[in-house]
Amino acid sequence: MDKEDGIFMKIMKQKIKLLCPQLIFLIVTFCIFMPSSLFLGNLDEFAVEFTALIPLLIAASLITAAVVILIGLIVPKKICNIYAAVIFGGALAAYVQGNFLNPDFGVLNGRQIQWSQFRVNAIISTVVWIVLIVVPPVIICFKKNIMTNIIKWGSLFLSSIQVVTLVVLIVSSKRSVDYSYVVTKNDEFALSSQGNVVVFIVDTLDNDDAQNYVIDRYSEELKDFTYFDNMIGGGAPTALGVPLMLTGYQYDTTQSLADYRKKAYEEGTLIQDMSDNGYDVKLYTSSEYLNGVNQEAVANTAGGQKYRISDKVQFFKNIYKMSAFYAFPQIIKQYFWFYGDDFAACQAPENNNIIQYELDDSQLYADFKNNGGITVDAGNKTFTLYHMVGAHVPYEMNEQCVDVGETETSLDKQIQGVFRYINEYMQQMKDKGVYDNSTVIITADHGGYGLYERPAVFVKLADTHNDVMQVNSDSVTFKNLYATYGKAALGQNSNYGNTLFDMAGVSQSRYHVAPWDVSKGMYPADEYLKNRDYSVFRIDGDAVNPQISVIKDEQQMKDINN
Questions:
Q1: Is the peptide bond before 524 cis (omega within 30 degrees of 0)?
Q2: Contact 407, 194 (CB under 8 A)
Q3: Distance, CA of 5 to CA of 277 (rounded, Å)
Q4: In terms of domains, do 194 and 242 share one?
Q5: The pairing of beta strand 231-232 with beta strand 347-349
Q6: Is residue 225 a contact partner of residue 412, using CB atoms and an 8 Å limit?
Q7: Same structural domain for residues 422 and 490?
Q8: Which domain holds residue 442?
């Protein structure tokens, strides 16, 4: 019996030794390098440090090792070499797919990918996967020793390349977004009896969506508003739209995004001016869009903070779903499609006493109801901004402001849910006597079609009453919206330019900045746009039927703020 046990243990050790190089290759490729490189390559999208990811990498590696070794111990000795070759082939296929075969999917911002346009990629990917998984086991049946050595040293060589690359990434990757502070829910629904400027950012609400789903349906609720149907926002996506509307400063594409944010909040002094003039400035949005703002001027920020992974299981699922999306064959990627913002819900401040504001409209509505609506006191006037998911994909909220999943709702129903909250909020303002002396603005951060250049904008100034909603077709931009904030809050606009209501008969050059991920929908073959992260477009004429040209001169790019 002891002899048989010795033989059995010897066979087990031989199997494990045989599997080790391929197992290392598989673990390094899929469990370590792929999630790590994706994390580091998108570092600004994560509030947690890379060190928070390490326990998850270890867990995935141990699980993978246990499964591969367990199967290897069960597999008969005579076909263990074939099993080892299959492991190598699968790891090599994932390596090749992740590094060489993936097409440009663009930003994973919730919009469904049109998989049909990647049919050629799917065919190539499928052929490569079949060849790499089938050929090594076939060869090993005829050239066992040679192929075993190729697999062994090939696995170790490719693993070492990835390890060295990962070390370089860890050392060189720098975060440009400041996550040392948290945007909190403090005084989320507190308004002042002295007056307020309340801004609802309905993310991605395009002028077309406003015409189709908002204007007629909510004509009574919005009768005191003016609708600006000739608006060109000036920047998309949200990373440009929100800083622009809060500062009036447009992105000069000759500088980095990090430098732009800093410059924008230096140039646009309104937030600081309102704070200096006794306003409680409350900006309920994601902290990344406020990078560069003076935190002391914003009442609902908490500095000196660090973030943690608050839901390790979900974060684990998300990071490896993302890895599978990039590493797996093209033909099955649609089952691993994910929304980049899914990670936000898995991260939270280390200080459990701080409640972070998140873009979650159903939660915002629930908080509003649980709070009994708005509260009003005689304290400082407020500038209160709520950034909502709004009309942004994926559509997961219904008209009752309840998350029901993508299969149970639509753009129309999600917009109805958003306006359910907005309308109830405004009704509370009326009931509690602060509607008349407050300015209410409903706007998008950018549009949802074309270059995302046409955000819907509705404005009700304080002490304004109409029988029907007014329509203004003047040529306006977010710079005019910024000036409108200034006049509504501080009673003058000399420091901020012309408001939305000052543009009758005034001509202005209008520019819009958009990334390749957006502009490729209109200009799929434009090599100039394709080779730039962001490009500047001049938009002449009416916003509905514009004449659009690409600005290629660097001096003109720099002059868009003049």
A1: no
A2: no
A3: 84
A4: yes
A5: unpaired
A6: no
A7: yes
A8: 182-306+350-503
